[in-house]
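Question: Now follow the chain.
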Amino acid sequence: MKLAIVGAGTIGRGWAALGVAHGWDVTLFDTDARTLEAAVDETGRRARALVQLGRADAAQVELGLARLGRGRSLLHACGQADWVVEAVGEDLHLKQRVFENLDQLARPDAILSSSSSSLPITEISSRCRSQTRCVVTHPLNPPELIPLIEIVPGKFTAPETVERVRDWLRQLDRIPIALKREVPGNVVGRIAAAVWRECIDLVLTGVVDVDEIDRAVSLGPGLGWAAGGPHLTYHLGAGDRGVGAFIQQLMQAFETWWGSLAQWTKLEPEQVRALTSQIERAYGDKIEALHASRDRRLAAILHALESSRRA
């Protein structure tokens, strides 16, 4: 399997580490040579970290790293790829230019996918002659650890494109969900935006501190939803009576809470400064250590979920 990744930022490096960890033939490309070199080094570190976390096989990782290539040009990186993943910045015009070039340089049967978290593939691929092979494959960060990938087809995406991408993602041990239509922010982004807005509001209005709200989410609904998602959680919440009884008993309370939730759509500059200050005060500047700690927790959660499914 030949995977080409265009854009060697954080998401592109995660895609590369994922492909490498499965022994795929991966080529990275970026217009900035220093970014590309840094990405190759970090891809190796992140792929080997998966071994330490019990998420990858050491021999397969080394095989993938031996195959990891640097694209000298967009044609060199993508010309023979089965699947091209675009992972450049979240800028519509930039993505459109990349896809227009990919449409001309990639093999006619290659799949072109965007990692976009918010932009629709219908617009991203609007300059392409063949929009049927274009689709969004949106990962969460870090892509090599979090298994969920959103597949978002556009108005002209062929069903066969969705199925091919779904099959490849499963080969990478990902868990794909396919949206039925495009929506701003996709599904995951909208959920995250809604929850984060309320968390921000609770911090800025003095209800709770940053570290406490993070604890409340990760060890409260986040933990429960990791095991079953919101609908299953509430369906099980009323025991044998199911979600109908849950709604009957608690919907009035939820409706009251919904009426008091934050409704703003923009943070003012002073609010941004206040939020940033509180987050930095809560967590300091030990980013590398925080990354490592976060990844260990993610790996442990995934291991527990996988073990429960096998039981």
